[in-house]
Amino acid sequence: MRKTLAISMTAALAIFGINTANAFDYTLSPGLQISSMLSDTPALKAGGGEFYPVMNHLMVYGDLNLDNLKLDHNGEDLAIDTSTHLPTLSGKIKYTDNLTLTGAYNGFPVPIPVVLAGPMDVGHINFGSGDVSLDSNDKEILRAIAAEVRDTGLTGIYLVGRTDSVGSVDSNFTVSYKRVMAAKTYLKSYLAELGVANPMITTEYMGELTATGTDSKSYGEDRRVDVTIYPII
């Protein structure tokens, strides 16, 4: 048993090492990386729905003076806000963008990798009881999410439709299907308007399977479509 466990752990560490190396190669920049992660607070709330933007932070490993650093992004310098606990970069960055740093490492320009924290749960839209069509609030949230897809290059989109526990299991599956398809149709159309030609939109409808509501307020929180964006590899 002990030998088997040791072999399993060795394999797991090897896999973890490979994934870590792919995520961030320290030979590129031995002290810095840009970490793309979800904001802690929503940038938009509308009709019970929320949108959380992707933020980009400059992660410093070591003792570097940020006041002397310049990040070049497609020929433009990115401002670095050091007033927060994680230095935040202005503007939007695609995970495939090339960025270089000057002002450190004896003045040599150094490429800075962009590392994604993982799939981004950028928000959700909510529905009234039995409703399957989008209202103006839902559309506002989806437009904000579409702009984020365009600006970040995270064109893989995962939509999950849900319902509350009121009604039959079969009818709730149907309602969650109609909700998620309404969101997909609108999102795909608006992405086309923004010039995002080939998004990969995956849908799932779960009915009441994940519902936790016990009263009118919490029922409303169950009636939703959740949106996650991620890179197409």
Cα radius of gyration in angstroms:
21 Å
Low-confidence stretches: 1-29
CATH topology of the largest domain: 60s Ribosomal Protein L30, Chain: A
On the 0 to 100 scale, the average pLDDT is 84
The total beta strand count reads 15
Which CATH class of the largest domain?
Alpha Beta
Number of helices: 4
User: What is the count of structural domains?
Assistant: 2
Q: What class would the helix/strand composition place it in?
A: alpha+beta
How would you explain this protein's 3D organization?
The chain is α+β, with helices and mostly antiparallel strands. The protein folds into 2 domains: 27-116, no CATH class; 120-230, 60s Ribosomal Protein L30, Chain: A, CATH 3.30.1330.60. The protein contains 4 helices and 15 strands. The protein has helices at residues 2-23, 136-152, 169-193, 216-222; strands at 32-38, 44-46, 49-51, 54-60, 70-73, 76-78, 80-81, 88-89, 99-102, 110-112, 114-116, 120-126, 156-162, 200-205, 224-230. The strands form 4 sheets. Strands 2-3-12-15-13-14 form a 6-stranded mixed beta sheet. Helix 2 crosses helix 3 (169-193). The radius of gyration is 21 Å and the shape is elongated. It starts with a helix and ends with a strand. The model is unreliable at 1-29 (pLDDT under 50).
Question: What layout of secondary structure does this protein have?
Answer:
Elements: H1 2-23, E1 32-38, E2 44-46, E3 49-51, E4 54-60, E5 70-73, E6 76-78, E7 80-81, E8 88-89, E9 99-102, E10 110-112, E11 114-116, E12 120-126, H2 136-152, E13 156-162, H3 169-193, E14 200-205, H4 216-222, E15 224-230
Parallel strand pairs: 1-11, 13-14
Antiparallel strand pairs: 1-4, 2-3, 3-12, 5-6, 5-9, 7-8, 9-10, 12-15, 13-15
